[in-house]
Specification:
By secondary structure, this protein is of the alpha+beta class. The protein is built from 3 helices and 10 strands, in the order αααββββββββββ. The strands form 3 sheets. The chain has a 5-stranded antiparallel β-sheet, with no helix packed on it. It has a 3-stranded antiparallel β-sheet with strand order 5-9-10, with no helix packed on it. A two-stranded antiparallel sheet has the order 4-7. A hairpin with a 2-residue loop joins strand 1 and strand 2. The protein is rod-shaped.
């Protein structure tokens, strides 16, 4: 008798649990369906072209809208410019700026050349038959380089100590200089000797012209002075 009661109770419990599970499933289904009643499937697939409409040349086969590279670059340029200039829009686009920076061309198709500034060289100084001249001015390896010639048409040789060479800017301030190739003794043969005088660019700042002076050693009877030597850019 007790066994039959246990079996009956077990069956009832199983039926109750099964019924509760089925009811929960049905209830969840109804709630989910009710929640989706306002959701509708799109009438047209995003990748399907509209019937009778013009095709967009910027759409690829997958229906993605591909922007031209030039348009992207212009937008990026505008954004970066606005960020750097406090929101102010640029007056020219990269393409227009490139056009404005093109080299002007003359009618015969040759590039228009800009005239070179006149250096008014050589600059000479002569004393007692000894001549010093600056023939050219250039920039090289961080220095302003003066090409200098010396010749002696006098009656006797002349000696120089180049630590006595004075170089001044257009404000009268002395500048350090390095000589190279100039002779320590200049023979009285009329032969021309060439060398260079180098001034570091860091000393020039806004200097427009230079002056140099040189005397013989040890007598210091000669006075060779050159002024208005141009400083090239």
């Amino acid at each position: 008798m007790r066994l039959n009661t246990t079996v009956v109770l077990t069956l009832l419990l199983l039926l109750t649990m099964s019924g509760a599970g089925t009811a929960s499933a049905l209830w969840g289904f109804r709630i989910g369906r009710a929640a989706l009643t306002s959701v509708r499937q799109p009438d047209v697939s995003p990748t399907r072209r509209l019937a009778g409409g013009d095709s967009d040349p910027n759409l690829d086969e997958d229906g993605l809208n591909i922007l031209p590279e030039s348009e992207i670059l212009v937008k990026v340029y505008d954004y970066v410019y606005a960020q750097e200039h406090g929101g102010e829009a640029p007056t020219t686009s990269p393409g227009n700026e490139a056009e404005e920076n093109k080299t002007q061309v003359v009618e015969d198709g040759e590039e228009e050349s800009q005239p070179e500034p006149e250096l008014n060289l050589p600059i000479k100084s002569q004393d007692q038959g000894v001549t010093m001249e600056v023939t050219n001015v250039t920039r090289n390896d961080g220095s302003l380089v003066l090409d200098v010639n010396l010749n002696n048409e006098g009656s006797q040789a002349v000696r120089f100590l180049y630590s006595f060479l004075e170089v001044n800017n257009d404000q009268g301030q002395p500048l350090s200089a390095i000589t190279d190739g100039l002779p320590g003794e200049l023979p009285a043969t009329g032969r021309s000797f060439s060398g260079t005088v180098k001034i570091p660019e860091v000393l020039l700042n806004d200097t427009k012209s230079l002056s140099i002076s040189l005397t013989d050693y040890p007598d210091q009877k000669l006075q060779l002075s050159l002024a208005e030597i141009p400083v090239v850019e």
